[in-house]
Amino acid sequence: MSRVLERRKLYLRLMRQATLERGYFTVADIAEATETPRSTVQDWVNRLIEEGCVLVTEEQRGRHAARYAASSVMPESACRRIFTTVDGGEVEIYHECMSGGCAAFCEFHHARAGGALQSVRRDGTLLRERASLGRREVAVGLDPAPAVGIVGVFHEDGYVRQQIRSIGGPAYSLTDMMSLAEGVCGVTVRREGPVVEGEVVTRALAYVAVGIDDTDTGTEGATFALALALLQHLAKLDGVMPIGHRVAMLNPRLEARTAGNSCSCIELAVDPDLVPRIEEAAVRFVAGEAASPEWGIAVRQGFRVPGALRAYGRSAREAVIGREEAERAAERFGAHLHGGRGVIGALAAVSLIGLPHDVLLDPGRDVCTGWERV
């Protein structure tokens, strides 16, 4: 599936380049540039015509070959990455865009549409959406109707299929851009007048949260910096998609704190078979780079946070917690702890995933405030 997608990207790039330079291309032009049989290129041209990516500008006449043009010479894709994680019967969809404006547009219209989505949240240019499996119809159209909505999400054979309905600009994104985003395995589309419905296929990855705390001393290091370094390190490994880094404030009155008492959490989307290896790599990295011997990390798979685990995070912001309590909570909720005293705050960081930045940074805010509901 990935080879087909790469071939599609190559053909579209060459076709758009020729359209920019000469106003058209022929099958022979693309066949020569790619050292591919003309019959194969013709099949691709026919397919891209059906998808609306290529137009016939001049029919074949005798010995004169048909001429074609790419339907757009704009940037190949505003979509940088599209990937998904699965936790039980729910899916998280991550869509990173080149533009904060485009990301905000999708956030607004996806939330208005509802459909298969439970919640929609944007962090800069990264759109994060929580979806239930199944299909729920959405009527798209002109304002006040949504221009785009996710009508279905399915998890089968290690892949996630998003079914998206759209018109106008979002339809162009679906037909011409999403297939070029990193993480996309394939896109199929069909038109019904001005409405385009497509299916975007991505790998069903595992969500992994790594909480980190107590890696610094009063004079050396910073946990947030080490967490960022760890995120960059793990992002280079095959089978890993970085999601982001978050900072959370814990009990500001704790006597053993080095400064304001913050902890960090990094979020990753990982090939399910690689989760143990990623955990081992995280432990090695933090153990080797931490300035404090009390460093600790907590690793937990899954983006759904049970209420009792969230309550542990609340306690870490309001009271003094011992290691035994952290170990009991970790065992109960499937988290793995490594290191010294820092595991207490590291588990708290994991327990607070999914909360807005303003809640994470204000220990006086109620941690029950979660994602905005659709």
TrEMBL record:
Coiled coil: none annotated. Residues 20-70 form the Transcription regulator TrmB N-terminal domain. PANTHER family: DUF1743 DOMAIN-CONTAINING PROTEIN, TRNA(ILE2) 2-AGMATINYLCYTIDINE SYNTHETASE TIAS. This is Methanogenesis imperfect marker protein 11. It comes from Methanoculleus chikugoensis.
